[in-house]
Design brief:
There is one protein chain. This protein is α+β, with helices and mostly antiparallel strands. It is built from 14 helices and 23 strands. Strand 12 and strand 13 form a beta hairpin. Helix 2 crosses helix 6. The longest helix is centred in the last third of the chain and has 26 residues. It is globular, with a radius of gyration of 25 Å.
């Protein structure tokens, strides 16, 4: 068996995921519980995600800032629901310099409290509004069960925090950023997302309303890939964030917060990967083209002269290209770079040089083609564009195939899950009716382990009856097992 051979996704998806991200050299485990090391391949993925989102944030008027990682315990006590929501996951600093601190300091699980405190100092008048800030940072949540990129004790993310004079503007901001996330996921990550509102039980601690983008992974599970929260005046009142309006009346601001994290890397792997390894969409791939020379050593000089010129041409066209000139067999290299998910492979041998052509191989489909070296950079750009579109279409097809719209009762859902497990098929997602009662939502969760993902803004079907109780449904809700 090749050392690059992975456990198949059908056999054990979790084992496949761990093996794939390690063999693709994205990460390694840290000597601290629940933490990982981002190796250069993995961190560059995050850098590309970060760059794409940061450009979008700034285009909508947001600016970056940075706030302290340590948060006084008294700050967290000011918003009761918020602290109760995070308290089980918070690590605390209690000593420094050999002395016990007068007040415990939390390693931030999120920054609403620290930012709320500062906004109360910075915002005095309607002229100071809106405040549109974003922070790229690390946060800490002492998770009991961890999974690299998806759930770790320390992770990287961005958190936007805005303050507005009125509710309408704050709600518009909340939705604008949710749609920004969905657009980025579709166009850069090649992942379709369902956008919608979280049910009250799934709402962010301290929020009035929470909205999310939800993606389907290749094991049929859901991943909450990003959230946007309308906080109303909850944090404004807790932290006395007031302003003098145009009529000289003091009012509390309305605030929002929104964020995505390095779990987007996990989403990329679990949506596009296959039994060969990970597969990266060209727009985010650190390496878009891997060049591999082939042929006998005695003809290598002839190949390498043209090889160098081709590399220079692609690089000059702003294509992210690398060469693999190691003394391994071409077959070994092919497997290696397929496993690492590089979108396009370029092979160049003696016959190719004589014919003024090369061989290109697509990672997404395995299609192999001989193309002219004349105008090669244009050919490669066109192929990368085609690969990006194809990966998105395949993800959409997979989601559609495993989304079930005609399961109308809890008994039908349980039978569907049992049948899927018995036949080793994916249970996928179910669009279920919900009457709005927390008990019905809880019953579905307890009896099936399917949780409410979100109430989609544009459901493919409007459900008439509650999945659990059979009464009239007020919402159509995506339900699935989730990470």
């Amino acid at each position: 068996m090749s050392e690059n051979k992975l456990t198949s996704q059908a056999t054990d998806f979790s084992a496949w995921y761990i093996e794939a991200i390690q063999k693709a050299d994205l990460m390694d485990y840290a000597p601290v519980r629940g933490c990982i090391i981002f190796k250069p391949e993995g961190y560059e993925l995050w850098e590309r995600i970060q760059a794409g989102l940061d450009q979008r944030f700034k285009a909508t008027g947001h600016r970056n800032a940075y706030f302290p990682m340590l948060i006084p315990e008294s700050f967290l006590q000011k918003e009761k629901e918020h602290v109760e929501g995070f308290n089980p996951e918070m690590p605390w600093v209690t000593e420094a310099g050999g002395e016990k601190l007068e007040e415990r300091l939390a390693l931030r699980p999120t920054s609403e409290t620290m930012i709320g405190h500062m906004y109360s100092r910075w915002i005095q008048s309607y002229r100071d509004l809106p405040v549109l800030l974003n922070q790229w940072a690390n946060v800490f949540r002492w998770e009991k069960r961890t999974l690299p990129f998806l759930r770790t004790s320390e992770f990287l993310w961005q958190e936007g925090h805005t303050a507005h004079a009125d509710e309408v503007e704050a709600r518009e901001e909340t939705m604008r950023m949710l749609e920004t996330y969905a657009e980025f996921a579709a166009n850069e990550m090649a992942i379709p997302m369902w956008t919608g509102q979280k049910t009250p039980s799934e709402r962010f601690a301290g929020a009035v309303d929470t909205y999310s983008i939800e993606g389907m992974m290749k094991d049929g599970k859901a991943l909450q890939a990003g959230t946007s929260h309308f906080l109303g005046q909850n944090f404004a009142k807790a932290f006395d964030i007031e302003f003098l309006d145009r009529d000289n009346v003091r009012k509390h601001v309305y605030t929002t917060s929104w964020g995505v994290s390095t779990r987007l890397i996990g989403a990329l792997v679990m949506v596009h990967g296959d039994d060969k390894g990970i597969a990266l969409p060209p727009k985010l791939a650190p390496t878009q083209v891997i060049m591999i020379p082939i042929g006998p050593p005695k003809l290598r000089a002839k190949v390498m002269e043209k090889f160098s010129l081709v590399h220079q041409e692609l690089k000059a066209a702003n294509i992210r290209v690398r060469t693999d000139e190691r003394e391994e067999t071409p077959g070994w290299k092919f497997n290696e770079w397929e496993m690492r998910g590089v979108p396009l492979r370029l092979e160049l041998g003696p016959r190719d040089v004589d014919s003024n052509q090369c061989v290109l191989v697509r990672r997404d489909t395995g299609e192999k083609m001989s193309v002219s070296l004349q105008g090669l950079s244009d050919t490669v750009q066109d192929l990368l564009t085609a690969i990006q579109a194809s990966m998105y279409e395949r993800a959409c097809e997979f989601r559609s195939l495993h989304s079930h719209l005609h399961i109308d009762t809890l008994e039908q859902l349980k039978a569907h899950i049992a049948e899927a497990e018995a036949s080793n098929r994916l249970a996928g997602w179910v669009l279920g009716g919900w009457c709005g009662d927390d008990d019905c939502e809880g019953r579905v969760r307890e009896e099936t382990k399917f949780t409410s993902r979100n109430i989609p803004f544009a459901p493919p079907l409007h459900k008439e009856k509650c999945l659990a109780c059979g009464e009239n449904a007020t919402h159509s809700v995506w339900m699935a097992r989730a990470y």
